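Example 3.2
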Amino acid sequence: MEQKLKQVLLNVIEDVIKTGEPVGSQRLVEEYGMEVSSATIRNWFAELEELGYLTQPYTSSGRLPTEKGYQLYVDELMPKRSATKKDCQAIEDISSAEHDFETRIKESAKCIAAAVDNAVIIGLHKDDTFYTGLTHLFAQPEFAEMKNVINLGALLDSLDEMIGRVKRQDFIEPTIMLGSQCPFGSMCGSVMVTLGEGVFFAILGPVRMDYPYAKALLVNLKNNLK
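Structure, written as C-alpha cells:
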C-alpha cells in the first residue's frame, strides 16, 4: 500500500479511537494538517474502501475502519506509547504494597480499567475469574445497541470456560486480538498478557480501543507485578 494511503488510514483510526465517530475528509485536512484538498482525500478514501480497509456506514457520512483496517494498524502502523507518570506510579504503588499476589492483581485491574475507560478480565487459579470495569465498557458508544450488550453478556455468562481455553496459551508479551480473532466476541478488541503464577490478564474494549496505551499499561504491569 502506498504511504499516503497508510497515513490516511492511520489518521482515520486514531481519530475514531478518540471520538467513536465516522471521519470526514474535511476533518483530516483541518485536524491533521494534511496538505491536500478534501476531494483528494475522498479519492483516497475510495481507494481504501476498495481495498477493504475503510467502510462508509451511511451515505454522505464519513468513514470508519474495518476489521482489516484495524488489523493493519496493529500490525504495521500503531505508534509506540508510554503510560503516563500518574498511571505508572499507581501501578507501582499497588504492585509494591504488602498484600498477597491475588489482592495486588485485582487492585491493579481496577486501576487499569479506570485508566483505559474499559474493562479488565483476569483468569486466576483453579478456573477462578475476576472482572471489573464493565460500567466503563458498556458506556462506550458501541454498546448503546442493546444487542451488543446482550451478546457480550452471554459470553460473560460462560467466562470461566472461555478463560480456561484462552489460558492454555502463554502470552509472554502483551498480545492484541481484535474482531473475529478476539475471544470475547467480534465487537471487541483485547490486549492480553500472562503474569506471574500463570495468571491471565486482559484489557477488554470495543474494536476501536486505544491499543497503544493499553499495551503500554500491560508492559508496565508485567515489569512491576512480581
